[in-house]
């Protein structure tokens, strides 16, 4: 993992040098900052938008079913996928950040439930990418690429992708190409069950397959980092990167023999740094350096994992919540747990996979964690892991994302 250490150390140092000049160059302008939490209730079909600073509820939106939330890459929209209700609602965050090189502009308006829905059989995976999002319908036999700018203009601009057959899969874009999971249509499955996944195929802009299907058995989990797209597989992690006009380059990072039995099924991608973090069974995670001859570094946890995230601001940090209520700070450079603290009561992993358990996000350089038993979002200092305050949220706050930032308001 030497490459990750080198890239991370350089990026952290560069980040320190690049923060202050943009602010000082525009001291005579009105610098503003706004952060909002979007929280879905576990039991009621409700999504709320909450002002992070004041804790005030800015919007409450009735949806159709249990919602999983995904923020777009820009943070301007949040998609609420409801697989049990066969529908996806879209919430406008009301925060628009525009990059101008030496500074960013910010425009702050009220959040809103957009007057557009996307319907199909069991929408599950939502993949945010630059300028668009990709919706995958497990039982619909299709994926849809949604243009975000058009959506915010009140229009629907959709490119539909044929996924061969219904299956629990995923699709993502890489330049002009689309990477989409492939079901094993010859496998014997029980009535009403979906077939397993056997690999990834590449489609060009006209929907034609490019090259052969890349093996990725039991594919689950997708993430993007530094123009790479990674998928969790039974054999290893499949990484797709920019190739040539004939399509992306796909490479399988096979699990080495010294790793215990397991596989990556959930994967996160570094936003400023080229690396991935994946689960590895219930009580382990792996750091993945796609450029290394030894790409995997295993980190063992004391008990089973409930949720984990990467910190886009504190680049060395990943946060892992375990079922005993401890939050662990993983140093992604050293590959070790740097510190931990008790932040909630224990939440067992036994029971249904969708039982109400805490979920994590980062917001304005802090950690926010839903605590559905106590109807609060807990806010933690990442340096000390001490709780700095709580935000009361009606019901059972569950899925959570954060949007926002700072910029110049003209």
Outline the structure in words.
There is one protein chain. With 410 residues, the chain is mostly beta strands. The protein has a single domain, classed as YVTN repeat-like/Quinoprotein amine dehydrogenase (Methylamine Dehydrogenase, Chain H). 7% of the residues lie in helices and 51% in strands. It is built from three helices and 34 strands. The protein has helices at residues 2-18, 20-24, 148-152; strands spanning 30-41, 46-51, 57-62, 68-71, 77-82, 87-92, 95-99, 104-108, 112-119, 123-129, 132-137, 142-147, 158-162, 171-174, 177-183, 197-203, 209-215, 222-225, 228-232, 236-244, 247-254, 267-269, 276-279, 284-288, 296-300, 305-310, 317-322, 326-331, 336-342, 360-363, 366-371, 376-380, 387-392, 397-409. Strands 3-2-1-34 form a four-stranded antiparallel β-sheet, with no helix packed on it. The longest helix is centred in the first third of the chain and has 17 residues, at 2-18. The termini are far apart. The model is unreliable at 8-28 (pLDDT under 50).
Shape: globular
| CATH superfamily membership | YVTN repeat-like/Quinoprotein amine dehydrogenase
Rounded average pLDDT: 92
* End-to-end CA span: 45 Å
Helix content: under 10%
> How many helical elements?
3
CATH class: Mainly Beta
Tally of DSSP β-strands: 34
Write the layout of secondary structure elements.
Blueprint: H1 2-18, H2 20-24, E1 30-41, E2 46-51, E3 57-62, E4 68-71, E5 77-82, E6 87-92, E7 95-99, E8 104-108, E9 112-119, E10 123-129, E11 132-137, E12 142-147, H3 148-152, E13 158-162, E14 171-174, E15 177-183, E16 197-203, E17 209-215, E18 222-225, E19 228-232, E20 236-244, E21 247-254, E22 267-269, E23 276-279, E24 284-288, E25 296-300, E26 305-310, E27 317-322, E28 326-331, E29 336-342, E30 360-363, E31 366-371, E32 376-380, E33 387-392, E34 397-409
Antiparallel strand pairs: 1-2, 1-34, 2-3, 4-5, 5-6, 6-9, 7-8, 10-11, 11-12, 12-13, 14-15, 15-16, 16-17, 18-19, 19-20, 20-21, 22-23, 23-24, 24-25, 26-27, 27-28, 28-29, 30-31, 31-32, 32-33
Protein name: YVTN family beta-propeller protein
Keywords: Signal
Signal peptide: 1-25
